[in-house]
Amino acid sequence: MLSPKLSPILRQYIIVIGATLSILSPGFSLGWGSPVLVKLMKVENSTEMILSKPITTEEGSWLVSIVSLISMFAIVLIPLANVIGRKYCIVLSCLPNIIAGLIFVFSDKFWLVLFGRGLCGVSIGLLFPIISVYSAEISDKEIRGTLCSFIQIICALGCVTMFIVGPFISYISLNVLYTCITIVSSIPSLFIPRSPYFLYSKGRIQESLQVLTMLRGSEELAKEEIEQYSLYKRENEIEISKKIYKEKTFWKAIFISLTLAILSQCSGYNSVSFYLLTVLESTETSISPGIASAVVGGIQLFGACITACIVDKFGRKMILFSSFIGIALGMCGLGTFFKIKETQEIHGILNFLPIISIIFVIFSFIAGPASILFTLAAELFDRPAKTVGTSIAILVNMLFMFLAIKYSGIITSYVGLVWSYWMYSCISVLSCLFVIIFIPETKGKSFAEIQDKLKTGKSKMSFHVVTIRS
């Protein structure tokens, strides 16, 4: 139990970080393909026997994309969070990643490694939505955006570790590190409190009140929040499950969440990030791919940290708009580089255009859609629909992630590198328009206020004006 001397805000930070550390392993999984595919495809690597034979390009694409494919099917297990609770779902969701790590260390068969990657997808499909909901239910509305952004910070930390360490150590050593860190990062989730809303929904009102009092620092504030829960409870007694799908606000939240997820995955980030070393090698520049991936990994972590610091000051809308502009510029830069490369040899400062463009894309995506999507999904849906709505949004996100990873190469082969990157740039510009017109600002608003804003339809929308308090 946390010391009563700690401030309520600090308690919330500690609890959410403890739960979110479980995302470190999915971060490893998402960054795994960049350094590992190069190792698994090398025929001449006689000093270290990895698999029984080198993998093909097609097999490599499956190793990368199967994570998002399986995570879609894993999402059907999310209603379990309403049965055993968010905490124990988080704990159980860590187990597939641990098993996957052991498979990577001891297996030399491609199909077993592919199976292990599928297990990684199970963990990702469960952990992201459940921790998003848990963090939103634990947090005060004033710091909800910051605490929900920790998911992307921890995930980015896992990716950074892969990018920095992966190219420079052996395949076995990398996966031993993966397994050990997965086990250690899962331990704090055993000690976090249960969700107060879940406890209340199961009739354990006194336990819910105790958790809320610890989180809010005052029994009076805790009772006020319990009173809000009681409104949802009364709704549940009048067949809320049927009523909720007829409400305009639910479908509005679905439309916003799903469209944002689709546009984010179609922005081209995955074709750059998951095949980072391959992209850099295709530029034939003088930049070392290993060094470049380490730098990009650091930028990725920096972007996630920046968002956590500013999301509750500038709001979700402004960050999303600025981020899509950054992605558009980065993709335009990559397309321009390959267009120039078609007609002349690259010299001087133009050698740095690809890495600068890639940094723009990765920083902007991580600071914007990647960090805000899960926060926004957890905020837009009313409490009774939160797990269902968030699950649908993340399912669609994972579906389009799979399609983007698996078929980006096919798109590029048809239209060429230049036009594929310019196409991604145009999609990002369209995403900016969607943000301006449709996405409401949820910063500093209670869940009831957000639902009211969705009902009135007046969210369309001036950018949030930042006020600085002395």
Output the keywords.
19 helices; disordered C terminus; 470 residues; Growth Hormone, Chain: A; mainly alpha
> What composes the largest sheet?
none
Q: In the CATH hierarchy, what is the class?
A: Mainly Alpha
Structural class: mainly alpha
How many helices does DSSP assign? 19
> Which consecutive residue ranges, at least 5 long each, have pLDDT under 50?
459-470
How many DSSP E strands?
0
CATH architecture: Up-down Bundle
- Give the terminus-to-terminus CA distance: 34 Å
Question: Whole-number average pLDDT?
Answer: 83
Shape: globular
Counting structural domains, the number is 1
Plain-language structure description:
The model is unreliable at 459-470 (pLDDT under 50). This protein has 470 residues and is mainly α. The chain has helices spanning 8-20, 24-41, 57-74, 86-106, 110-138, 144-165, 171-186, 196-201, 205-216, 219-236, 240-243, 248-265, 269-273, 276-283, 289-314, 316-343, 353-380, 386-438, 447-456. The protein has 19 helices and no strands. It has one domain: MFS general substrate transporter like domains (Growth Hormone, Chain: A), CATH 1.20.1250.20.
